[in-house]
Amino acid sequence: MNGLSSTWSGHPATRMRRRIVLLGAVMALVAATFGLPGTAAHASAVSHGSKATLVIPVVAPFTGVDAALGPKYVAACLAATEEANKLGGILGHQISCKTVDTRGDPADAVPAVGQMYATTSNIAFVIGCTSDEASTVVPIFGSNKTVSFCMTGESEFDSVKFPYFFRLVPPDAADAVAMVAIAKNRGYKKIALAFGNDAGSQTFVQPALDAVAKVKGMSVVSNQTLDISATTFETEAQSIVSAHPQAILMEALGAAGVALLSEVYQLNGNKMIPVIGTAAMIDPTFYSGMVKAVGVQTFINSFQADNQVSTAATPAYGLFKKLVLAQSGKVKGVGNFSTLLSAVGTVHLYDGINLAFLAMAMSGSTQGSVYKGDILKIADGVPGATIVTSLQAGLKDLKAGKKIRYEGVGGLYNFDAYHTSFGAFEDTKYTATGGTVNAGTLPATELNSL
User: Fold this and answer.
1) Which one of 18, 32, 104, 114 is CB 3.0 to 4.6 Å from 132, fit for a cystine?
2) Does residue 290 lie in a domain region?
């Protein structure tokens, strides 16, 4: 994975257990999908000559403990489709977004996706699919020849190829290493871990432990697993405070993260212990809750997160910002919309959607089986390709017969053999207005040392 997969592939036993789970999911769920009524008819086809509206399902948690994730993805979908529709659509088709609630649970995700296929015609492609449910739904998407852009960091996708699957974010193991690198750069030696008991958060724990063990003088003094359905964490908070860590590495989304850190703050004499969060904690719900609990300055002075390199400097950012902020009030579950401008899910899914739109235009088809190869050509680039930084520019150049390479809000994308693309990380901090700034870049060479 860009030369880094051997470093960030996770604990061997953990990888093996997950691979066995994934293999079972692939076998059982693909078979189950073929039994769903109407699945084949609704896979992703648009009849030749039809100008029916294309649908982009956002398959993600909208309820449950990870409900904060889905709204970020919907904002990306609405922003990208608004621009496409203003330009006349894709191949004459208008586009709409549809939410599919997985509840962050594989057991709920499978029937939800089955219902999606049974009731939805003209599926263009799917976005979302987090680490909570990706292992169970990605095989279903593939069996239906549906292109998917998933927000999963699970290590299974580092070495198992799904031809219709695309990932624009790093594996969770890479995120964990980046968090430890930030702690190292800040001079922190005594580390507490606090991760939710959901599947998406637990994948960070072992890679973080492994990375900490490689830093001379650094140790984990407290390792807490958080029931993210709980409303209080007094026991866990007391354990953390009693261990006197210099920093807390964590992922606990939404209200759970706020509850834990509020109690840590109180038990620590109304003083924050520095926190290093995952990219998923660049989140409006978390930001608003923490500001209310401890105050703006206290929060922004004590919290930072690993993230992919800053988006504000890219040529595509201005239009992205305009389109995302225009969705304010249209998406339930999002407070301060400015936090979405650097949220990994919003940024990279917006780019993924544009990549798919351009691939459709390039291939002249809305069929995933036809245009998926052109996603790679437009992302990775081909000899003689012109860089384009917007859907409009890309469509114009394609119409003129030019080869193009898309440089999005997240920069240039380079997919590996397993369709994963990610670049350098940054140390992200919040501003007082809810925006973010890059407090330092973490190059791959630095991360590979851990």
Assistant:
1) 104
2) yes
Q: Determine which helix (DSSP H) or strand (DSSP E) holds 128, and give its type and residue range.
A: strand 126-130
How many whole angstroms from its chain centre is CA 193?
A: 21
Structure tokens at 417: 């053999």
Q: 39 with 94: CB under 8 angstroms?
A: no
- Could you give the number of structural domains in the chain? 2
Q: What mean pLDDT, rounded, does the chain reach? A: 87
Residue written as token pair 């976005």: 127
Asked whether residue 217 is assigned to any structural domain, the reply reads: yes
Letter string b/e over residues 191-201, b meaning 16 or more CB atoms within 10 A of that residue's CB: bbbbbbebbbb
Q: For residues 178 and 302, state if they share a domain.
A: yes
pLDDT number for residue 434: 83
Please list, in sequence order, all residues whose beta carbon lies within 8 angstroms of the beta carbon of residue 179, skipping any fewer than 6 positions away.
204, 208, 249, 276, 277, 278, 306
Quick check: helix, strand or coil at residue 101? strand
The full length of the chain comes to 450
Given pLDDT bands bounded at 50, 70 and 90, which one contains residue 349? very high
Q: Which domain holds residue 241?
A: 172-309+423-447
47: CATH: 3.40.50.2300
Same domain membership, residue 164 and residue 99 = yes
Cα separation, 331 vs 348, in Å, equals: 18
Same-domain status, 179 and 300: yes
* β-pair type (219-226, 190-196): parallel
Do residues 378 and 56 lie in contact, with contact meaning Cβ atoms separated by under 8 Å? Answer: no
Residue 280's nearest CA partner among 67, 126, 61, 69 is 69
**Model confidence over 93-124: pLDDT tens digits?**
999 999 999 999 999 999 999 999 999 999 99
Tens digits of residue pLDDT in 156-165: 898 899 999 9
Q: What is the pLDDT of residue 20?
A: 40
